[in-house]
Amino acid sequence: MDDNNSMTVNPEDFQAIRAILLKYWDPLKVAGQTTSSDKYDVYAHELVLAAKKNAKFDHIMIYVFLRHIELERFPGLKIEEVRIESREKAAKAVLDYFQSKKIVK
């Protein structure tokens, strides 16, 4: 882990992105399960860090990131279990949040 603050994320941003992923994306269907609600925390953290590092962060980058997670980290996930619309809504909501907070342009 990096010793400087580059790995630190604002807790408010983290919680907002975590909530968006659970509400719109949720390929493992864990929303509402209190024992599993942290399943996407690492991805929320990665998205916030990426946005902080890249002012040109955009909808396509978020969409591709989510798709990469589905393919690489959830190998048993069937494509029909994750609707393209869910990924699209999540990417738009994440970008809207970052733009509203002026984290990205």
Q: What's this model, at a glance?
A:
The protein has 105 residues and is mainly α. The chain has one domain (8-100). The protein has helices at 11-25, 41-53, 59-73, 84-100.
Q: Which key features would you list for this structure?
A:
single chain, 105 residues, mainly alpha, 4 helices, 0% strand
Question: Could you explain the architecture of this structure?
Answer:
Helices cover 57% and strands 0% of the residues. Helix 3 (59-73) packs across helix 4. It is globular and about 35 Å long. It contains four helices and no strands. It is mainly alpha-helical and 105 residues long.
Calculate the mean pLDDT score and round it: 81
- N-to-C series of helices and strands: HHHH
Backbone shape: globular
Strand residue content: under 5%
The oligomeric status of these chains comes to: single chain
- Biggest sheet, in brief? none
Helix content: 55-70%
Radius of gyration: 13 Å
The number of E-state strands comes to 0
Low-confidence residue ranges: 1-5
Number of domains: 1
List the helices and strands and how they pair.
Elements: H1 11-25, H2 41-53, H3 59-73, H4 84-100
Helix pairs in contact: 1-2, 1-4, 3-4
